[in-house]
Design brief:
By secondary structure, the chain is of the alpha/beta class. It contains 10 helices and 10 strands. The protein has an 8-stranded mixed β-sheet with strand order 2-3-5-4-6-7-8-9, with helices on both faces. A two-stranded parallel ribbon has the order 1-10.
């Protein structure tokens, strides 16, 4: 049965564009919590920055949607950007809170963020700590630390490879321990083996936007461009800030996400070993299809048009359950280039997975 959710709304149009952690000209909600979640992997220790955005309980700036009553009990949305890149280029998707769902944006793999309350940034860990598989373990740590029983995952670009590793982690069966000691023993055994314990988090749905896992997943012209760029601007030169070594501001995060430049993108693509590239590659026939969740998990694949640097070489002929959306006039970030269309498509996908009909007012021009 489809349930309807009641909200108070005046249906304003939210501004398009992403603000790259700068001054946001308008608000969706005033209920935002940011925190650090500790993470360890062997001798490696770090903190994961988490931004939890909640539906507005009262109208913000006099013209937004509000949820004055009890919030609907819906799985939240986990935003997965490129490992090592700040969450802020995905911030358009925070508008999903207008459906009554919480949104969790996560900075994985030491992605920088500036906040007055944060401790000094620790020294960077080894390059191996900034891979999609590590990002997946950090995402799982955030889900469990936040007490999430189920979650919708939206992943973009190289974050798609991280999301697919997360799918594998969530596939692991949870042992039915008959006693607390049995459960503790199982957890201790897995931890000793260096793998995270089985998770009790349920994957409610998966959306991949222009996913890739290796340099070979990109169009040939983009591969050559990245390799030439690295010769002109070595990665070590832009330790902080934008791809030119300066502080990222304005629309710089969008520029880097579109062109796959900037340290996180180039480090992951150009410094990966041949073995890592083969394991992470999503193109070449059915590699992507083999890593998707089964048909019981609603799955959607979004991509841009000819301006998208990702080569759409996935063979999903055996996965007729996967929804496909192509935004012909979009590049690599359709949720910016075609903001309203992507948000409406995504909300329809989430609502179908949850069996509800949620609010659309305030999301964009209908």
């Amino acid at each position: 049965m489809v349930a309807a959710l009641t909200v108070a709304a005046s249906a304003p149009t939210l501004p398009a564009g992403a603000w790259c952690n700068g001054v946001f000209p308008g608000k969706i909600t005033n209920d935002v919590q940011e925190r650090l979640v500790p993470f360890s992997m062997g001798a490696y220790r770090t903190d994961i920055f988490v931004r939890e955005v909640r539906p507005p309980r009262s109208r913000v700036m006099g013209g937004s949607v509000s949820f004055p009553g009890e919030l609907p009990s819906l799985p939240p949305v986990l935003l997965v950007g490129v490992p090592g890149a700040p969450y802020d280029y995905c911030e358009n998707l925070e508008a999903l809170v207008l459906s009554g769902r919480r949104v969790f944006a996560v900075n994985t793999c030491e992605a920088p963020v500036e906040r007055g309350w944060l401790p000094p940034r620790p020294k960077r860990g080894p390059r191996e700590a900034r891979r999609p598989s590590v990002a997946a373990r950090q995402l799982l740590a955030v889900c469990e630390a936040s007490g999430l029983g189920a979650v919708h995952v939206f992943a973009h670009g190289l974050g798609g490879a991280a999301a697919l590793h997360l799918v594998e982690l969530l596939r692991q069966p949870v042992p039915a321990a008959t006693a607390a000691t049995a459960g503790a023993a199982a957890t201790a055994t897995t931890a000793a083996a260096g793998a995270p314990p089985p998770s009790r988090v349920r994957l409610a749905s998966l959306t991949l936007a222009s996913p890739y896992g290796a340099l070979e997943d990109l169009r040939p012209v983009q591969q050559r461009r990245l390799q030439s760029w690295d010769e002109l601007f070595p990665i070590d030169m832009d330790e902080e800030g934008g791809s030119d070594g300066t502080e990222s501001d304005g629309q710089q995060c969008v520029v880097e996400a579109n062109a796959l430049t900037g340290r996180p993108w180039r480090e992951a693509l150009l410094y990966a070993s041949d073995e890592e590239s083969r394991a992470e590659r999503l193109g070449e026939g059915g590699k992507l299809a083999a890593r998707l969740p089964d048909a019981s998990v609603p799955t959607m694949l979004l991509r841009g048009g000819s301006a998208d640097p990702v080569e759409p070489s996935w063979d999903l002929s055996d996965r007729t359950d996967v929804k496909m959306r192509e935004y012909m006039f979009s590049g690599h970030v359709p949720f910016i280039d075609n903001r309203e269309e992507v948000l409406f498509d995504l909300l329809a996908h989430l609502d179908a997975a949850d069996g509800v009909s949620t609010n659309r007012n305030g999301v964009g021009v209908s």
